[in-house]
Amino acid sequence: MDQEIENIQIKPEVQDEILLAALKLFVEKGYFNTSLIDIKDAIGIKNTGIIYQHFKTKQMIASQLHANILDSLSTSIDEIRCKNEKPSEQLRGIVDLLFKLTDEAPDVMRFLLILNIIEFLPEAKPLHETAAIIKIIRIIEAGIKAGEIRNITPQLGYAHFFGVIDNTLRLVLTGFLDRKADSYQPQTWLTAWNTIVKK
Predict the structure, then answer these.
(1) Where in the chain is the domain with CATH 1.10.10?
(2) Using one digit for the tens of pLDDT, what is the confidence trace for 170-188?
(3) Looking at the chain, which residues constitute the CATH 1.10.357.10 domain(s)?
(4) How many helices (H) and strands (E) does the chain have?
(5) Strand partners, 197
């Protein structure tokens, strides 16, 4: 049995298993209602000592999850920007990504859009100060300069455009809208784009 625990401890994927289990529990039960024992049980390991080898506290798990999700989003935005020249196409690519994630990785999107991160990660930057959102605001700035987007402060453009997107996705994630996100995407894109497009 000690050999079994030792083998689990040295597996590099254990940290990922901890993060995935924690993500699921945080969005289902809430951060404060999830314990390290819950995470241990979800992974199927014998003791919480293995978790402590990777993370000293539950807050450190949440912080790593938050960082991973935002880093992944930022990287995806870079890829979208490289593949699409026009700001409108870049925004469309980001919207496509968010709707896809809502259908294929709903726990990630619940963590981002539903959980009140500041309650358990008070030191975390506000979302609008993260690299991913700053990149989106730069896309909107570029769209204004290119004449695709009306003359509006980029932050307000972001608020108008992503207010529509985020609220639609939240309503899908909470079950108020009862179909897959993909089915709402065309109309949501059109509504969001019409809030900022130069006419």
Answers:
(1) 2-56
(2) 999 999 999 999 999 999 9
(3) 59-194
(4) 11, 0
(5) 149
Place of tokens 């990149």: 135
Q: Is 72 helix (H, G, I), strand (E, B) or coil?
A: helix
Which CATH fold topology does 2-56 show? Arc Repressor Mutant, subunit A (1.10.10)
Task: Look at residue 6 in the predicted model and tell me its pLDDT.
Answer: 43
CA distances, 56 to each of 5, 24, 36, 101, 124 (Å): 18, 19, 10, 29, 18
The HSE-up count of residue 95 (CA atoms within 13 Å, CB side) is 27
Structure token digits, residue 43? 């992974």
State the pLDDT at residue 3: 42
Question: What is the b/e burial string over 144-155, where b = at least 16 CB atoms within 10 angstroms of the residue's CB?
Answer: beeebbeebebe
Task: Name the CATH superfamily for 59-194.
Answer: Tetracycline Repressor, domain 2 (1.10.357.10)
Q: Which tokens in the block code for residue 50?
A: 């293995």
Residue 140 structure tokens: 């909107």
